[in-house]
């Protein structure tokens, strides 16, 4: 049985230091986390990464940046409300100086980072990177040089695992607090496991790559996070709130964007929101607002507020089962509005996620990311393995890699996985526009400055 006192252990994650403590008289640890994330380059790059719709002429379409800020806002409210409940239930937490506001700040900071590992072009980008290693000849060439666990990582690019890698990396300076990092990790398992436990939400995807397994183990040991029966880790309970904040925002706000773009009509949207609001929906008052944008704004605000209340109640109901590992579902699947959210999801898939603009964006993403991976992977393979094919073109391509790219000391006898991971860092960290621009240049479609 996990214990809240242990789960909220203070200190900052550093693979080289166990149990590192920090003190700051002006800001709490989680407030410092929030500030570090806001000012970091990976977070800033989210302003030019697709959420659902392409990022062009419509300034009201959400990007990964605006989505992350909204999820963080909802997460703060969920965390603070859950914190009020925890402080009342476990008096010793308050005696230790833990406050509801601090728990809210932990969830807010973790939620702010929840998409930080996503590649360009959204989930289509994840699939494009995975498919390159699975199916492309210059992706498949690496399989014989690395371990099965490492190959599973490459064939299953996962934004959550990439995010964990970025947050614990030593070169980005974040060094988040233990609780924030654990709350971020919705899927505390590696890609390569013998068998998932049926019905466990936390094992639906994976949350760290094989070379970060020791990092998560260190984090789990410090916070007293326990293992599931198949050797994977249980979730930190606050990760359920981070997940719920994301579920609430993308369900409600993607529908709002879809209606704004004319993919879902306003009447159908009102009905979908009405299934959440029930008797709180006053059609006469709603119809008094003169514009569709105003109607959508009030519906969105009311729906999110209702979902927050229901989620907090579900957290309170299942909190002890989370600590024991007996509860492992999405909170939004066990609230009264679960069926309404499921219906919104079905409509969104049909009318929004499979709309022409979204499908065109996904198709472009596949082409761009496969093209970039092909160019760089081929050049690296020729340099270290098929050396008789190493050309002047390959040399020029490799000069486009970051200055700190680990080329020195490598040869055919060295496991190339660390190098390939850095290549993934480079590609997945690009913004949509930069990826497209670089693709055009390396393919000769456009010249620099053109």
Secondary-structure topology with pairs:
Blueprint: H1 4-7, H2 29-38, H3 41-44, H4 64-89, H5 91-95, H6 100-112, H7 122-135, H8 137-140, H9 148-155, H10 159-168, H11 178-184, H12 213-223, H13 238-260, H14 266-277, H15 283-287, H16 292-324, H17 338-353, H18 356-384, H19 392-398, H20 417-428, H21 432-442
Helix pairs in contact: 2-6, 4-6, 4-13, 4-16, 6-11, 6-13, 7-18, 11-12, 11-13, 13-16, 13-17, 14-16, 14-17, 18-19, 18-21
The CATH class of the largest domain is identified as: Mainly Alpha
What CATH calls the topology of the largest domain is: Hypothetical protein af1432
Which geometry do the CA atoms define? Answer: globular
Give the helices and strands as they follow along the chain.
HHHHHHHHHHHHHHHHHHHHH
Pfam families: HD, HD_assoc
Domain HD: 64-251
GO biological process, one term: dGTP catabolic process
Protein name: dGTPase
What is this entry, summarized?
Keywords: Hydrolase. With 450 residues, the protein is an all-alpha fold. The chain is 59% helix and 0% strand.
Question: What does this protein look like?
Answer:
This protein has 450 residues and is mainly α. The chain folds into 3 domains: 234 residues, Hypothetical protein af1432; 114 residues, putative deoxyguanosinetriphosphate triphosphohydrolase like domain (putative deoxyguanosinetriphosphate triphosphohydrolase fold); 86 residues, no CATH class. The chain has 21 helices and no strands. It is globular.
């Amino acid at each position: 049985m996990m214990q809240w006192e242990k789960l909220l252990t203070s200190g900052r994650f550093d693979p080289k230091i166990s149990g590192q403590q920090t003190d700051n008289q002006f800001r709490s640890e989680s407030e410092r986390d929030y500030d570090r994330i806001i000012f970091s380059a990976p977070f800033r790059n989210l302003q030019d990464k697709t959420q659902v719709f392409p990022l062009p002429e419509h300034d009201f379409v959400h990007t990964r940046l605006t989505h992350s800020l909204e999820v963080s806002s909802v997460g703060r409210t969920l965390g603070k409300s859950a914190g009020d409940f925890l402080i009342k239930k476990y008096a010793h937490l308050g005696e230790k100086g833990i406050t509801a506001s601090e728990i809210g700040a932990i969830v807010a900071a973790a939620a702010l980072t929840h998409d930080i590992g996503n590649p360009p072009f959204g989930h289509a980008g994840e699939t494009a990177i995975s498919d390159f290693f699975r199916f492309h000849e210059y992706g498949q060439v690496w399989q014989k040089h690395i371990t099965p666990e490492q190959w599973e990582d490459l064939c299953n690019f996962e934004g959550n695992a990439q995010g964990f890698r970025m947050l614990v990396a030593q070169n980005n300076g974040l060094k988040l607090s233990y609780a924030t990092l654990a709350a971020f990790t919705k899927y505390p398992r590696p890609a390569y496991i013998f068998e998932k436990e049926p019905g466990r939400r936390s094992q639906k995807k994976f949350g760290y790559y094989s070379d970060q397994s020791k990092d998560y183990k260190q984090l789990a040991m410090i916070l007293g996070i326990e293992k599931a029966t198949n050797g994977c880790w249980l979730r930190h309970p606050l990760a359920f709130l981070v997940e719920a904040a994301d579920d609430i925002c993308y369900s409600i706000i993607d529908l709002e964007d879809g209606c704004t773009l004319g993919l879902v009509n306003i009447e159908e949207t009102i009905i979908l929101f009405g299934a959440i609001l029930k008797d709180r929906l006053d059609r006469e008052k709603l119809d008094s607002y003169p514009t569709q944008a105003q109607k959508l704004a009030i519906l969105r605000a009311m729906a999110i507020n209702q979902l927050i209340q229901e989620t907090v109640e579900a957290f309170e109901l299942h909190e002890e089962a989370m600590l024991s590992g007996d509860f492992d579902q999405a909170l939004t699947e066990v609230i009264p509005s679960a069926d309404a959210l499921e219906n919104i999801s079905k409509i969104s898939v049909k009318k929004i996620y499979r709309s022409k603009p979204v499908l065109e964006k996904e198709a472009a993403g596949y082409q761009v990311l496969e093209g970039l991976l092909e160019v760089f992977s081929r050049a690296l393979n020729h340099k270290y393995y098929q050396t008789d094919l190493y050309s002047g073109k390959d040399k020029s391509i490799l000069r486009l890699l970051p200055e700190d790219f680990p080329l020195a000391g490598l040869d055919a006898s060295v496991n190339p996985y660390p190098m390939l991971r850095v290549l993934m860092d480079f590609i997945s960290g690009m913004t949509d526009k930069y990826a497209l621009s670089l693709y055009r240049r390396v393919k000769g479609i456009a010249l620099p400055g053109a």
